[in-house]
Amino acid sequence: MATSGFLIKGFSNRKPLEGLLRVTGAKNAVLKAQAASVLFKDKILLRNVPFIKDVGKMNELLEDLGVVVEQKGKRSFSFNAPKVLKTDLNSSAAKLFRSSVVLSGPILAREGKVRFPHPGGCVIGQRPIDVFLDAFQKMGAELKIQGPFYELKAKKLKGTEIFFKAQSVTATETVMMTAVLVNGITVLHNCACEPEIACLAKFLNSAGANIIGAGTHTIIVRGGNVLMSGVFNTPPDRIEAGTFAVIAALCGKNLKIANCDPSQMGAVLRALSEVGASVEKGKNCLLIKGPRALRPTDVKTNAYPGFSTDLQAPFSVVLTQAKGRSLLFETIFEGRLNYLSDLKRMGANIVACDPHRAIITGPTRLTGRETKSPDLRAGLAFLIAGMVADGDSLVNNAYNIDRGYEKIEERLNAVGANIKRIINNE
Ligand code: EPZ
User: Fold this and answer.
1) How far is CA 63 from the centre of its chain?
2) Rounded to the nearest 5 degrees, what angle is found at the Cα of 334, between the Cα atoms of 331 and 339?
3) Ligand 1 centroid – CA 152 distance (Å)
């Protein structure tokens, strides 16, 4: 099977980046809106949809369930769920990305049963789904686990009060969506507060749902309303925008980032200012200039609005180039620092303290190497490292990067990078 990678010319081969990078629609928002289509009686329309692999995979899953997906415009797609949904998730597709699990609750609420595999996605830790399963059982479902498959049945789910064991983004979104179809009041405590959750709730409320508190730690859903149809405008991808801001600070001379929402990027913009980058904010754009010499800073990931765990890997490249010692502390996922060993192979001075903490001392010159992207964000970190390294780098498994970044090499080359997509026929 042919796989693809990215061949990156290092810093010495080109001048600093300049020009305009446009941010696309948010992966972690659009995937949930796609899944929400099964809650509706009629067609819904999604706008500003990014062309990323996970969106394609979600469409595949939905079509397999009987949802009709049609392209209505360059970045607009309609979704029309059937009267009766298939209740088995196609496991080969569902195992490729985490968001497949978001379909479980809505299907259970609609059809009274659902069968799905343990979701796949970025290998950044164990990533259990106990918070989801606990919530469905508290709502009255019966659970059967058969190997890697979960089977849930419920004659009638009921509204109830749930205190989540962990602040989980997808669990909050999934149970919130499930509660919309369930008669009665559901109160959810210890919810995640990522902006994509409030965005999803706003969309569902615009179609007749009754959700209050989304974006805070307590969400109340008055369920049982029928959702007819709605339009979802995918918000800008704050993680892609943060990734571009990191690239601008490292390799940019005059790089503008457009179609973003700086108000959702407080933590990463503050960290970039701390390392000496100049950050100019517009209403929906940013102008980031890197300093001559980067200063070190400590980065501790946190739930929103803290420093996003999804920007930890891209930001670590900044720390390898900063003059001094920085502490990198990944608090959300126990397996999200594994990629650092590849940065060390490129010449970075990194001491891993434990699965959650590492000390990065810079600046060190990085040398181009061959790496393989283990997940979406570490893959981007390797691409960025290749852009600042001496000599050429090869990042294999481009699929993992294409999962969440649309045509990344074309957009970065348009501002002066030198990245070539290569196909390896294995
Ligand atoms: C979402 O993943 C995002 N993915 C992730 O982005 C993001 O890193 C993560 O939230 C944290 O912000 C999507 O929205 C598709 P969690 P999710 O459940 O929901 C534990 C990217 O790169 N937990 O918020 O899977 C879990 O182990 C991806 O775009 C349980 O213990 O993350 C973790 O320690 C990567 N039991 C913590 O909660 C559960 O049932 C937060 O994870 C669920 C989660």
Assistant:
1) 22
2) 100
3) 22
Residue whose Cα lies nearest atom 18 of ligand 1: it is 168
- Say if residues 39 and 224 touch (Cβ distance below 8 Å): no
What residue type is assigned to position 310 of the chain?
D
Residue recorded with tokens 């659009």 = 30
Tell me if residue 173 falls in helix, strand or coil: helix
Mean per-residue pLDDT of the chain: 96
Residue nearest to atom 13 of ligand 1 (CA): 28
Of 68, 62, 71, 72, the closest CA to residue 32 belongs to 62
**Quick check: is 191 catalytic?**
no
What confidence score (pLDDT) does residue 1 get?
61
Supply the DSSP symbol for 40.
B
CA of 305 to the centre of ligand 1 (A): 15
Say if residues 322 and 343 touch (Cβ distance below 8 Å): no
Is residue 24 within 8 A of residue 380, CB to CB? The reply is no
Query: Which residue's CA is the closest to the ligand 1 atom numbered 25?
Result: 170
Residue 426 has pLDDT above 60, yes or no: no
Q: Of 122, 193, 199, 260, which is the active-site residue?
A: 122
